[in-house]
Design brief:
Blueprint lengths: L1 E6 L17 H5 L1 E2 L2 E2 L2 H11 L4 E5 L10 H11 L3 E6 L11 H6 L14 H18 L6 E4 L6 H10 L3 E2 L21 E3 L2 E3 L4 E7 L2 E6 L7 H14 L5 E4 L5 E3 L7 E3 L1 H15 L10 H5 L13 E2 L2 H23 L14
Parallel strand pairs: 1-4, 1-12, 4-5, 5-6, 6-7, 7-9, 10-15
Antiparallel strand pairs: 2-3, 8-9, 10-11, 13-14
Helix pairs in contact: 2-8, 5-6
């Protein structure tokens, strides 16, 4: 059982509007009222319940943020005993060029932030940059890689094998479906081109006559009752590995891409806390040692069972109602929030 956290900064609309700047630390720490409701809350929660999480740290942002603010975050995560692994969003490489605004507007294939359709050698160079960054930071070399937006294809796995990164977590079928049946992976561990893939759990959210809805397991997208039901089902079905996805910015509401006004997301914070408490009380069934350790376990015949777990409409409906009601309430409160709560937006790097 692995809680994975994509830890990344935001372009924040800079490609479309030259008057705005990308956002760095505030996208991760999410500080409001002198308190971190994003990464700070998560680290406190993990420490309280003895959870080792896997943080996929995005490094290509260094092409814009030359002061390298992600380094300090990565070091803190490592010192806290968490599993720090590699994450890449190719869109940041546009900032290598003086004419980056013009380049960002040009439609190309692959997309500016896509690994899907990207040349194998080009993907390899991006991974090598990531490996060199970890070396520069003095951190252990990453053994697991997750692509931006979960884009993937055969070329990406071949490039990763050449880069010497043995494990991946690129697949979340309900987030990105390449259309290739070979990558319609819902659970377990699977070898692709010499790389062991640990997909984010995808389950059947609900089914009605003529339509089946798939959903990848995230903190922001499933309530605790659904998540617990899926974990219990995975244990009964002998599913070897369950991977959950989350991001630090999911634990706040924000009024704009610059995150100048925020309030805590109580629902998502409560979901994370309840999940961590449940895992701490069931260590005999669910180990939380980080994805790198789980991925490195010897492969068995049952490791590659591709089980599609089943959600429940009876649990999905209350979640959808809760989210709709709370979203409307939180955005109303955010709109009327006191002006003193506005965060100073940092200058462009």
């Amino acid at each position: 059982m692995s809680i994975t956290v994509d830890t990344e900064f935001s372009i924040a609309g800079a490609f479309r509007d030259q008057t705005v700047c990308p956002v760095a630390e505030q996208r991760v720490w999410c500080v409001s009222g002198y308190k971190s409701h994003g990464l700070g809350y998560m680290l406190d929660c993990f420490a309280q319940y003895g959870i080792t999480a896997t943080f996929f740290v995005e490094v290509l942002n260094r092409h814009y943020f030359h002061r390298d603010p992600m380094r300090d975050i990565a070091e803190k995560l490592h010192l806290a005993g968490h599993d720090v692994q590699l994450h890449l969003h190719p869109c940041w490489t546009v900032f290598r060029h003086e004419d980056w605004r013009e380049r960002a507007r040009v439609r190309t294939r692959p997309g500016i932030d896509a690994f899907y359709g990207r040349a194998e050698d080009e993907s390899l160079k991006l991974m090598e940059y990531g490996l060199e960054t970890f070396h520069t930071w003095g951190l252990p070399a990453p053994t697991v890689f997750r692509s931006g937006s979960l884009h993937h294809d055969d070329a990406l796995y071949r490039a990763q094998a050449r880069a010497g990164i043995p494990y991946s977590s690129h697949v979340g079928v309900a987030v990105f479906d390449s259309g290739d049946e070979n990558y319609r992976l819902y659970s377990g561990r699977h070898e692709r081109h010499g790389v062991i893939e640990c997909p984010i759990l995808t389950f059947r959210d609900w089914k009605v006559p003529g339509k089946t809805h798939l959903k990848s397991l995230t903190i922001t997208g499933s309530n605790f009752a659904e998540t617990r039901m899926l974990l219990e089902q995975a244990h009964r079905e002998g599913v070897e590995q369950v991977v959950i996805l989350t991001h630090p910015f999911e634990y706040v509401y924000t009024s704009d891409q610059q995150m100048s006004r925020m309030r805590r997301h109580r629902v998502n914070q409560r979901r994370l806390a309840r999940l961590c408490k449940f895992l701490s009380e069931n260590t005999d069934r669910f180990a939380t040692d980080g994805l790198a350790a789980a991925a490195a376990m010897p492969m068995r015949a049952e490791s590659s069972r591709n089980v599609l777990l089943k959600g429940s409409l009876l649990k999905a409906v209350p979640r959808m109602v809760e989210q709709a009601v709370y979203d409307n309430y939180a955005m109303w409160r955010l709109k009327h929030q006191d002006a003193s709560a506005v965060v100073d937006v940092e200058a462009c790097a």
